[in-house]
Amino acid sequence: VATRKGLLGWHRDVTGGWQPNAAPAFLGDPVSQVLHDPRDGALYAALNLGHFGCKLHRSDDGGSRWQELAAPAYPVKPDGDDDPVPWDLKLIWSLAAGGPEQPGVLWAGTIPGGLFRSEDRGANWRLVESLWQLGILRIAIGVAVAAISSCIGGMSAERSVDGNRARVMGI
Q1: 147 phi and psi, to 5 degrees?
Q2: What is the rounded distance in angstroms from the CA atom of residue 5 to the CA atom of residue 24?
């Protein structure tokens, strides 16, 4: 469970009830998102550390040990660009695993409104620039069919079923 005070783990006991895990992770740090990847069992935690920025961590052992990963990063804003939106990561507000046939693929929705894709379990991230340039508002990842749907500027919708290599307008 992601909270403003850390990451709390829970498990079912022998009676079917819920019990807290022995120790929380990232105690005292705001955890903005947590993801359990059903494909390989990895846990991902996104943290918002204010002055120290956004951080991303992965655990391959159920949360006992965590490895820091590179957080998604925006390109440098071009000189003279009058875009009022800052081009730096403020928050990872959404994490999703790719489909079962996409090992290692992760998606991260961020503030400002950007979608990032990783193909190596979060070690490296690539901004989906076509959506960034249009100004995305909402993203839904359909893992069952590995589809991406996005709402662009509140005016149109797009859908991709091939990892955002092609999109269909007007869904």
Answers
A1: -105, 150
A2: 9
State phi, psi for 160 to the nearest 5 degrees: -130, 135
pTM: 0.77
- For residue 126, count other CB atoms closer than 10 A to its CB: 12
Give me the DSSP letters along 67-100.
EEEPPP-PPPPPTT---SS--S--EEEEEEE--T
Tokens of 100: 């079962």
Secondary structure of residue 130 in the 3-state scheme: helix
Classify burial at 163, counting beta carbons within 10 Å of its beta carbon; exposed 0-12, middle 13-18, buried 19 or more: middle
Are the beta carbons of 74 and 87 closer than 8 angstroms? yes
Q: What does the alpha-carbon distance between residue 149 and residue 5 come to, in Å, rounded to a whole number?
A: 32
Please state, in angstroms and rounded to a whole number, the distance separating the CA atoms of residues 15 and 37: 26
Q: How far is CA 122 from the centre of its chain?
A: 9
> How do the pLDDT tens digits run along the chain, 171 residues long?
888 999 988 888 899 998 888 788 999 999 999 999 999 999 999 999 988 999 999 999 989 899 999 999 999 988 888 888 888 999 999 999 999 999 999 999 999 888 999 999 999 999 998 877 766 545 555 544 444 554 444 444 455 555 555 444 443
- Which token pair is 157? 């919708």
Contact 96, 35 (CB under 8 A): yes
